[in-house]
């Protein structure tokens, strides 16, 4: 017994077999209708039908097939191009089936609402071999024959898209435009006067110039007072000139580069520092020679300690820097240049050899080291000669400033703003250290303690350095006569020692107070003073009286 409750679904290709049988049947039927006018038996007596006759009628059949579609053939005997498009879909969780989603007869028709994509989504996914490349990306075919498939390669930061397959470098001083389809000139930048990188060093330098001018005014106003005269006026004025130039250096370094500015830069940076440290080196060297040579050879004054000699020594040291700058100009012409420190802009700067800049600064570093050495050697002289201590402190501070500047400058990663600003601040701070430490105490006494601005207070003296000699050891068996004799000998020795102390004091005072005409307080000229025997000025002291 047949169970009709079981569902049955015919195979999809069976309809084509049935339609083929129908097509043949319709062709034979039409053939017989046309060739057999009588009874069917008379048609059978006609003989066998040929294949050509049947094919002719098959090509002309037209009927509705079992699936309800029209069946017919073209002039070449091919069936009509008709296709049903099916998608294999999940019907239920446990059942899958083909679902008709479109057809093609003369054209394609798709019912998109019946199509199911991944995760039963209705969104149509893109089906391309390669997406179009974005701006700034060039196509690179994966294979020589794959003309429709490629990968997108980004052009470099300095490249533009020459065509859809090629990136090219922009010329020097140019960068790609926004669409990376061409190149545009890079903007030229330099430090603007309203920038914070400029306002800080210029404000500091302006305050420094005003302070230096005030100190210079005080020195000129009180030029003949003991404190100013005892400080070595000539070298002080050289120092103040160098300090003003050091503050002015900031304005030159921050100015827009030009041939004139580049020329001035080469001189002002080295010469301003050289004036400061050459003057301080001359001062410390003079004090060192007086207190060493003067003590060893009491009867002779050390050579080249007069104002003229000191100025000559100072400017001899400065002339080395000037000659170096002139030589630099002869071998390397000052000019401007554009340097691309960033992909977005060009920096306008002065063309200069790093070796030449290093040599220029190395000479000043050499002077700083010598000043520091002499300052260290003269740090323990008597308290009255405290200018040596101030110079030593100035040099210690200067070394710290430059040691802090070096890592900042070379660690700036070629940022021209940091490099320029740090150099300006380093030079200005060095000038400020010299101004405050060397001239601050003198200006303070001149303005706020004028009662100390007298010869006794201003003239250096070694009396405070003399110490009471201990009483000599006297053995137990010692005659009164010998005691009196030794007492007289000790008093004589003490007088000679104090006389030597006064000799160094007078030696220092003479060299400090010699006039601009080259004559000292004795009326002798500089040449005669170099080897003039010092007078023994024995002075009774409290130490001797205590004996």
TrEMBL record:
Source organism, top-level taxon: Eukaryota
Pfam families: 7tm_3, ANF_receptor, NCD3G
Subcellular location: Cell membrane
Keywords (A to Z) from UniProt: Cell membrane, G-protein coupled receptor, Glycoprotein, Membrane, Receptor, Transducer, Transmembrane, Transmembrane helix
TM spans (from-to): 196-220, 235-255, 267-288, 309-329, 355-376, 388-410, 422-447
Major subcellular site: membrane
Region annotation (Disordered) ranges: 511-547
Domain G-protein coupled receptors family 3 profile span(s) in chain numbering: 197-462
Membrane topology summary: Multi-pass membrane protein
Molecular function via GO: G protein-coupled receptor activity
SUPFAM superfamilies: Periplasmic binding protein-like I
InterPro entries membership: ANF_lig-bd_rcpt, GPCR_3, GPCR_3_9-Cys_dom, GPCR_3_9-Cys_sf, GPCR_3_C, GPCR_3_CS, GPCR_3_mtglu_rcpt, mGluR
Compositional bias per record (Basic and acidic residues), positions renumbered to this chain: 529-540
Entry's Gene Ontology cellular component terms: plasma membrane
Biased composition (Acidic residues): 511-528
Family per record: Belongs to the G-protein coupled receptor 3 family.
Name of this protein: G-protein coupled receptors family 3 profile domain-containing protein
